[in-house]
Amino acid sequence: MTAAMDHIAEVGYAKATMKSIAEQAGLTSAAIYHYFPSKVDLVTATLNARIDEVMGRLARAVEFPGTLREHFVALLDEAIACVRDYPSVARFDATVYLESARYPDLGAAVARRERAENELYSQLVAEAVRAHEVAPGIDPRAVVDMLTSLTWGLAHLSATTTAERHRAAVGATEALLAGILLIERND
């Protein structure tokens, strides 16, 4: 699965073949076909395994009493650790997400990922609303969408630039959340 993730992150879903994935994994195509009858089966199993692992890690990262800001910073820090452990995970995820429009068989796995992320952020935002951390009149759904947009943007950055730039952008996001990034001007 790691070889499939790395290979698809490198060449894309359309250009990836079971033979090339097998070669990258040091296996024969027959060995892969024994467990996965098709490329879509291998890719969806790989994506689902990564979703389970990454979302589990993110959920564990916020298992402490804290504010939404503290929880989101913990999520960002754990996301960096996930990218460090699986350098091609963000590119693989983005590739599968984009190519799911052309290959509907991938759509169920992509939708599962979106639901898992939405559930986690919705839970955190609901807790923040109960704790009166979210200003009155702010739509909780909008906060979930904002958190999703930030994480997807940071994931895109991790897939398209250096690890240092990604870490710096996460640091700037954390500073923004802490209220220390922007300086109020008194003009």
UniProtKB/TrEMBL annotation:
Stored PROSITE patterns: HTH_TETR_1, HTH_TETR_2
Matching InterPro entries: DNA-bd_HTH_TetR-type_CS, Homeodomain-like_sf, HTH-type_TetR-like_transc_reg, HTH_TetR, Tet_transcr_reg_TetR-rel_C_sf
Pfam families assigned: TetR_N (PF00440)
Keywords: DNA-binding, Transcription, Transcription regulation
The entry's DNA-binding region: 17-36
Domain HTH tetR-type: 1-54
Record carries keyword Transcription: yes
UniProt xrefs under PANTHER family: HTH-TYPE TRANSCRIPTIONAL REGULATOR BETI, HTH-TYPE TRANSCRIPTIONAL REGULATOR RUTR
Protein name as annotated: TetR/AcrR family transcriptional regulator
Source species: Nocardia jiangxiensis
